[in-house]
Amino acid sequence: MKTGQIVEIPQESSIYKKEIPTFDSKEEELFWKVKQREYSLFEGFIVGEHKGVEQFEIGQRKGLNISGKKLPVYVIGIDEVENRVFVGQGKNHLGLFADVLHFTEKNINWLNKPIEDIVIEVQVFSSQLENEITAKFYQFKDNYFLEFNTQIPLIIKNYTIGLSYENENVLILK
Predict the structure, then answer these.
(1) Counting CB atoms within 10 angstroms of each CB, which of 73, 103, 124, 168 has the fewest?
(2) Contact partners, residue 100, CB within 8 Å, separation at least 6
(3) Strand, helix or coil at 153?
(4) pLDDT, tens digit (0-9, with 9 covering 90-100), for 93-121
(5) Nearest to 74, CA basis, from 18, 9, 15
(6) Where does residue 116 fall: left (phi above 0), alpha (psi -120 to 50 degrees), or beta otherwise?
(7) Cα–Cα distance between 128 and 135 in angstroms, integer?
(8) Count H helices, E strands: the chain?
(9) How far apart are the C-alpha atoms of 122 and 112, rounded to whole Å?
(10) CA 152 centroid distance within chain
């Protein structure tokens, strides 16, 4: 295992204050929103080292070996290519929430025939949600997105997410 860096992204980082550009398509907008969670070393500062990104998941708090911070530290991003783990202070850090999730075909298990429509309104359920949440499900070739009206905990991506459409379970995302 190669030693990697743990980088803290401050809550007030400019990454959370980017002006929303004009988009030519909904697909372009959704990809842009997802990319806002791709952190780099230049947006924060190094606070520690780790022995492998595979030991971490979004929302993790324990096992980071970072002390002396005002608030508890949570994993908010993982870059497997650069071998970096990104963290933020506090359970309300902006990096722990998102309003768009991206999936590819490898993350999908269809329970019924694939949905033909490019966009549908679905009910989302997960062990990480207190109640079902309404979202829009988009399909663009091999890319799938869930867009929520509000910020949801990003930790949901670590767990199975179910979708129902017209009162019928249609697929499972993992």
Answers:
(1) 168
(2) 30, 33, 34, 145, 146, 147, 148
(3) strand
(4) 999 999 999 998 888 887 876 667 688 99
(5) 9
(6) alpha
(7) 15
(8) 1, 11
(9) 14
(10) 9
